[in-house]
Amino acid sequence: MRYYIVIFILLFTLNPLKSQPKYEVRAAWVTTAYALDWPKTKATSTAGIRRQKAELTEMLDKLKAANFNTVLFQARTRGDVFYRSEIEPFSSLLTGQTGKDPGYDPLAFVIEECHKRGMECHAWMIAIPLGTRSHVNSLGRRSVPLTNPTICASYKGQWYLNPGHKGACAYLLKLVTEIVNKYDIDGIHLDYLRYPEQAPNFPDGREFAQYGKNKSQLQWRRDNITEIVRSIYKGVKERKPWIKVSTSPVGKYRDTTRYPSGQWNAYHAVHQDVKKWLQEGIQDQIYPMMYFRDNNFYPFVLDWQESSYSRHIVPGLGIYFLDPKEGNWTLDEILRQLNFMRKNHIAGHGYFRVQYLMENTQNLYDELNEMFYATPALVPPMPWAKNSAPPPPLTIRIRKNGKEISLAWDCPWKNNQRETLRYVIYGANTFPVDITKAANIIEINVRDTHFVHNPDFPWEEKMYFAITSVDRYGNESQPAQIQIPAYN
Fold first, then answer.
1. Cystine design at 78: which of 21, 131, 192, 395 (Cβ 3.0–4.6 Å)?
2. Rounded-to-integer distance, Cα 393 and Cα 425, Å
3. What are phi and psi of 292, to 5 degrees?
4. Are 324 and 312 in contact (CB under 8 A)?
5. Residue-by-residue DSSP string for 384-421
6. Residue 4 confidence (pLDDT)
7. Interhelix angle for 298-306 vs 331-343, to 10°?
8. Mind listing the pLDDT tens digit for each residue in 285-310?
9. Nearest one of 339, 335, 334 to 352, comparing CA atoms
10. CA–CA gap between residue 38 and residue 52 (Å, rounded)
């Protein structure tokens, strides 16, 4: 069996461009909790602010160079945040002091920098856990157990929002709405939207007696989580329907016909009825935490895919296990998982966490940069939200100065009044440019109506270009084609 796996990987290696999909989510989690990925520098001076920002942009530059297209930025940890909020305090990790403004808005900054690089930025939010008692005390008067004590529960030394209390759902929606209204975010990504693991004695008996009706307590708890998912999804879509709403559930939904989960799964252990969310259409993407290998990985990936209801399944890969201090995985484990997901047309891949990409742990970053992500890829569209393409760009103009080529065009909508468009640039030496081939993509998510192309890096000279319009749902127009002036 291993012989055939090696041959498969070798064939992929010999023909990387032929294996590249045009559409694929390529996401990385940027963890701010405990400053695991960021920030490493405190913003206590002008130089500190500059360095803190530079830490982020260095990460984004490296992700861009490897053709990543999605950044999951942890905007809320446990009751504290990394943006200017009227509801919760700034994290102490920014300045060393809880609630202190770092002198800029980190979420606004990372969104802007992602967009400059053609990448989506999703606000990753820890939902239910609020932290230890000492952490909650460190937040002072703005901690949730002080500002909203009735919606909280203390369990085994930890504070949580109580999903059985109707006010907890309203509170989370308020947090999400604040971000949606204030920021040009591309996604809301909800983590730990679940009960504590295997917690039969979680203190929600009063709420169950009041609201449980004729349900079992286990089903009531699942319904509580589902109601939060439903409320947030509808609340986001009412305001900005193009924003993707996703969660990162436990990696195994339930036992499968292929392999058992040992009862450690989303449905039983933490009361996440994720397939119901997908069936009901209250998720756009799911990032199941597939931090497993062998039979604990492959059967459950297929299970998610077969129950996706055409939504994006983006398995989260536990690349931290490549670090000898974390596990004994080899790079081959991740490469097999990537090949398997490509072969089975999974919508994309998420990497936990970005540090291990930045450090090129076991040469993973090099493998992605040079092989698996050798060409750019577009984030798959959301036809369930909108299924009509925008018109193509108008009046393309081209200018050649040595090897530098400048393209300019007009937005097909006057004053861009309908919605913001992005543009994709393609190039080839055959006409018309085939926009179905990922190898012809030069740049994605261009936000301006002009683009400067330097063939010295990283593409060879192209004779023909095509430009398409893409709306915020990912729908792509027909191409507008153009030939450059003859080379001297």
1. 131
2. 11
3. -135, 180
4. no
5. TT---PPPPPEEEEEEEETTEEEEEEE-SSGGG-S---
6. 35
7. 30
8. 999 999 999 999 999 999 999 999 99
9. 334
10. 8
Q: Measured between alpha carbons, how far is residue 154 from residues 5, 87, 220, 248, 439 in Å?
A: 49, 21, 20, 23, 54
- Most distant CA pair in the chain, distance: 82
Which runs of consecutive H residues, i.e. helices, occur in 117-216? 133-138, 144-147, 166-182, 205-211
Beta strand extents in 273-329 (DSSP E only): 285-286, 289-290, 312-313, 316-317
Kindly write down the DSSP assignment for every residue of 229-277, as one continuous string.
HHHHHHHHHHH-TTSEEEE--BS--S--SS---TT-SHHHHS---HHHH
Q: Which residues pair with 399 in a beta bridge?
A: 406
CB 122 within 8 A of CB 112: no
pLDDT at residue 24 tops 80: yes
> 6-22, pLDDT tens digit by residue?
334 444 444 544 579 99
CA distances from 150 to 146, 153, 162, 192 (A): 9, 8, 9, 20
Q: Which two tokens stand for residue 438?
A: 């990922």
Output the CA angle 238-241-243, nearest 5 degrees.
Answer: 120
Q: The pTM is what? A: 0.94
For residue 449, give the nearest of 464, 469, 427, 463 by alpha carbon: 469
Dihedral of CA 408/411/414/417: which sign? negative
Q: In the predicted model, what is the mean pLDDT of the chain?
A: 92
